[in-house]
Amino acid sequence: MPARAPLRRALATRRSPLLGGLWVCVLGGLCAQGTAGTPGTPVPCQAPQQWEGRQVLYQQSSGHNSRALLSYDGPSQRVRVLDERKALIPCKRLFEYILLYKDGVMFQIEQATKQCSKIPLTEAWDPLDIPKNSTFEDQYSIGGPQEQITVQEWSNRKSARSYETWIGVYTAKDCYPVQETFIRNYTVVLSTRFFDIQLGIKDPSVFTPPSTCQTAQSQKMSEDCP
Fold first, then answer.
1. Environment class of 204 (CB within 10 Å of its CB; exposed 0-12, middle 13-18, buried 19+)
2. Rounded to 5 degrees, what are φ and ψ at 11?
3. Which pLDDT does position 10 carry in this prediction?
4. Residue 75 near residue 201, CB atoms below 8 Å
5. How far apart, in whole angstroms, are the C-alpha atoms of residue 225 and residue 93?
6. What does the alpha-carbon distance between residue 136 and residue 221 come to, in Å, rounded to a whole number?
7. Residues 6 or more apart from 181 whose CB is under 8 A from it?
8. What pLDDT, on the 0 to 100 scale, is given for residue 16?
9. pLDDT digits over 54-86, tens only?
10. Given phi > 0 = left and psi -120 to 50 = alpha, else beta, which region is 91?
């Protein structure tokens, strides 16, 4: 996984076999418009620091999409992910994940039983935003006449002769995350789409693990029925 992906990797590994992006992938024919800071080109905007919304995450390793509710608290370096059930899948367990980076720990809680696992977070906090040294790739509109929104696309590509391993798409006006994609060996390995974003954290207690986590086990739980 690319170096920029600690938070996304933590979010993604919740399903490998046991937790950021987003994007309708636009990997073909990316043309550099310049590097952030070059005169006449945009500079990375500041993404919201606290928000809640929904995400759809695709993992190449499983070939599956997973949907979840997401609470993101940048200043406190914490994230909460709640699996959503969109269809009845036999023998599938749904989980809640609370990632507390300042404490270096992730709690995995089964929604039905509140059984809890406490797992160390070994990666450093990596905020969900556009790194200041990102390369501006493009600006375009999503949608069509009478219903469209302008977005900017950024990557970690450093020269015209290198390929990107991360692509981020953010709205041009308020810098909301739209999609994030990670590429390895010319293949998309992780892609996340964000939507229904609301600013702020409605209930900060979502970052507090339930009492069952006081006696948490140390092993990750499988999403399949035991």
1. middle
2. -70, -40
3. 54
4. no
5. 6
6. 40
7. 21, 22, 23, 25, 27, 166, 167, 168, 188, 190, 191, 192
8. 34
9. 999 998 877 788 899 999 999 999 999 999 987
10. left
- Name the residue with higher pLDDT: 41 or 155: 155
Please report how many Cα atoms fall inside a 13 Å half-sphere around the Cα of residue 3, on the Cβ side. 4
| Residue 20 token pair | 């950021």
- Given a contact cutoff of 8 angstroms between Cβ atoms, the answer to whether 58 and 191 are in contact is yes
Question: Looking at residue 52, what is its pLDDT?
Answer: 98
Q: How far apart are CA 48 and CA 210, in angstroms?
A: 27
In this model, does residue 175 exceed pLDDT 70? yes
Average pLDDT, the chain: 83
Sequence-distant (≥ 6) Cβ neighbours of residue 141 within 8 angstroms: 148, 149, 150, 151
Contact 165, 156 (CB under 8 A): yes
Strands (E), 41-94: 50-59, 64-73, 78-83
1 Cα distance to chain centroid: 14
How confident is the model over 75-99, as a mean pLDDT? Answer: 87
Distance CA(36)–CA(186), nearest Å, equals 24
